[in-house]
Design a protein that fits this description.
Low-confidence stretches of chain B: none
Low-confidence stretches of chain A: none
CATH topology of the largest domain in chain A: Rossmann fold
Oligomer: heterodimer
CATH superfamily of the largest domain in chain A: P-loop containing nucleotide triphosphate hydrolases
Structural class of chain B: alpha+beta
Strand order of the largest sheet of chain B: 2-3-1-4
Largest interface: A-B, 24 and 21 residues
Radius of gyration of chain B: 31 Å
Radius of gyration of chain A: 17 Å
Largest sheet of chain B: 4 strands, antiparallel
Order of helices and strands of chain B: HHEHEHEHEHHHHH
Strand content of chain A: 25-35%
Number of domains of chain B: 2
Shape of chain B: elongated
Structural class of chain A: alpha/beta
CATH architecture of the largest domain in chain A: 3-Layer(aba) Sandwich
Mean pLDDT of chain A: 91
Number of helices of chain A: 7
Helix content of chain B: over 70%
Number of helices of chain B: 10
CATH class of the largest domain in chain A: Alpha Beta
Number of domains of chain A: 2
Order of helices and strands of chain A: EEEHEEHEHHHEHEHEE
Helix content of chain A: 25-40%
Chain lengths: 226, 302
């Protein structure tokens, strides 16, 4: 499903942010990508979103070579990849409902379907009661739930989460991870970039460790050691 | 895109004007100021040109004939004159007409003074054609043509008047064109600057839309609608202001400078606005449209 073949990414002259990375992730997997700040984790996410182009190597998603996805076709590609960020990135001037509905508007879903699906999605993330709240009226954990609802409302096959618990207190962090696990159980491939080792160890999932742009280990949950 | 998506985007664009109140206000103010200035200069320029045109219409070339010329020859000369493109109007003034006008002008108060000439028209050789031109700058060409005609004794022209009017006319044209060009350049600079600031503040919003999978057109449309709305409001406000101001200024001029109303007549506001309204609206909407499109372009490459 996700395949990186000898992918390198250099921004400017100097050390590459990612160096000869080869990763395979199967459909339905839950994978943690860990590493220190500046190790190249976020670069990996941005490559998967086709925000960046690799300097070397190839990336295949669902068998499709990302290099062949033209600028015009990027929107269609991104509709199959949900994404959540550390800082939530909600539209600040729209309420919870509108933020989630917006993702469906973007792909031109009929209004009838939007009205049916958005409340269901908000119930799933536990925010049905707050659908009219503005993002700034919500806690960090709630904002992240809205972001997850937005990422999932179009039923993408892959969900990328870039430090989803980075701005959250431990209780909220655990709740968000629980939600991501639940989503994974429903069949979505989930890739979580984090440096919250407590969560990584406790969840017992596959862990890919990147150091200075190089994959230094890729092990199943049982074998992972910090 | 589906029609419902267009409707949604138009709605979003309109809402955006309100959501970004400060930015909208700044853009509308800039646009209004520019179009207001444009309107003032347009009104001034048009009025000046109309005044010059009125003055031009009063400038005549007079053609006198050789002594003893026959009426047939005079008619032939008239025929030649009528064929000229420079001529807007020409009248035949007979010797009797000339004498009657002269008497009225000079002996109007003491008609008895003219009685001595009763039987002997002193202006017997003063039958003439009075010719009015379309454009005084063409006076020299016409005069040299007239002087070349058979039977023409003398051609009187007001060279100074013609030259002055021609000079004023071209000065007004050059100055008003210059001012309009400068104003346009300043407007485009100011407005695109305001739009640029507005859009860079919302770069995050655009980036989020793109990451969710929005097509460029979907991202662009609300911004363009917003730009057009701002342009529309920004041109309607100064137009309304100008409309009332123009009428007031004319009234004021008429009451305070009474002597002016005998010399010049101002163009009615309706005539000015038949051109000013479409041009200003087009300018406002055009700048709003182009501004938002061009500025968005670089943010869409995410």
């Amino acid at each position: 499903m996700i395949r990186l073949d000898h992918v390198s990414k250099s921004y400017e002259a100097g050390k590459p942010a990612l160096d000869d990375v080869t990763i395979h992730i199967d459909p339905g997997e839950f994978v943690f990508v860990v590493g220190d700040s500046g190790s190249g984790k976020s670069t990996l996410i941005r490559l998967l979103l086709k925000e960046l182009e690799p300097t070397k190597g190839k990336i295949y998603i669902n068998g499709q070579d990302l290099k062949k996805v033209t600028h015009k076709k990027i929107p269609m590609y991104r509709r199959n990849v949900g994404v959540v960020f550390q800082n939530f990135r909600l539209l600040p001037d729209r309420n919870v409902y509108e933020n989630v509905a917006f993702a469906m508007k973007v792909i031109e879903s009929p209004n009838k379907e939007i009205k049916k699906k958005v409340p269901t999605m908000l119930s799933l993330v536990g925010l049905a009661a707050k659908y009219r709240s503005m993002p700034k009226q919500l806690s960090g954990g709630e904002q992240q739930r809205v972001a997850i609802a937005r990422a999932l409302v179009n039923e993408p096959k892959i969900l990328l989460a870039d430090e989803p618990t980075g701005n959250l207190d431990p209780t909220n962090a655990w709740e968000i991870m629980g939600l991501l696990e639940e989503i994974n159980k429903r069949g979505t491939t989930v890739i979580v970039v984090t440096h919250n080792m407590e969560i990584v160890k406790a969840m017992n999932k596959r862990v890919i460790t990147i150091k200075k742009g190089v994959v230094v280990s890729d092990v199943g949950g049982d074998d992972y050691e910090d | 895109m589906k029609i419902s998506t267009h409707v949604y985007n138009v709605g979003q664009g309109m809402k955006n004007v309100w959501r970004n109140k400060l930015f909208s206000l700044a853009s509308i103010a800039t646009m209004s100021a520019c179009i207001f200035l444009f309107g003032i200069f347009y009104s001034l320029g048009t009025n000046f040109q109309a005044m010059v045109k009125t003055a031009e219409e009063g400038v005549a070339v007079t053609v006198f004939f050789d002594e003893g010329i026959s009426q047939a020859q005079i008619d032939e000369i008239g025929n030649e004159i009528s064929k000229r493109a420079e001529v807007s109007e020409y009248n035949f003034v007979s010797a009797d007409d000339a004498w009657a006008t002269f008497q009225e002008e000079y002996f109007g108060d003491n008609p008895e003074l003219a009685e001595g000439f009763a039987e002997d028209n002193p202006l017997a050789n003063s039958a003439n054609y009075e010719i009015y031109l379309n454009d005084v700058s063409m006076q020299p060409t016409l005069v040299s043509f007239l002087e070349g005609l058979d039977g023409v004794r003398q051609v009187n022209q007001s060279e100074v008047a013609a030259k002055t009017l021609t000079d004023i006319n071209s000065a007004i044209t050059i100055i008003s064109m210059g001012i309009v060009v400068i104003l346009l350049a300043v407007s485009i600079f100011l407005i695109s600057n305001t739009v640029m600031v507005g859009i860079s503040v919302r770069r995050e919003e655009i980036a989020i839309m793109k990451l969710i999978g929005a097509k460029d057109a979907f991202v662009r449309q609300p911004f363009v609608v917003e730009g057009i709305m701002i342009g529309l409001i920004g041109s309607i406000i100064p137009l309304i202001l100008l409309f009332f101001m123009y009428e007031e200024v004319i009234k004021y001029m008429a009451s305070e400078f009474n002597f002016l109303s005998n010399m010049v007549s101002f163009i009615p506001v309706k005539t000015i606005f038949t051109t000013l309204v479409p041009v200003s609206l087009l300018l406002g909407v055009g700048i709003g449209w182009i501004g938002s499109r061009v500025t968005l372009h670089k943010h869409l490459k995410v």
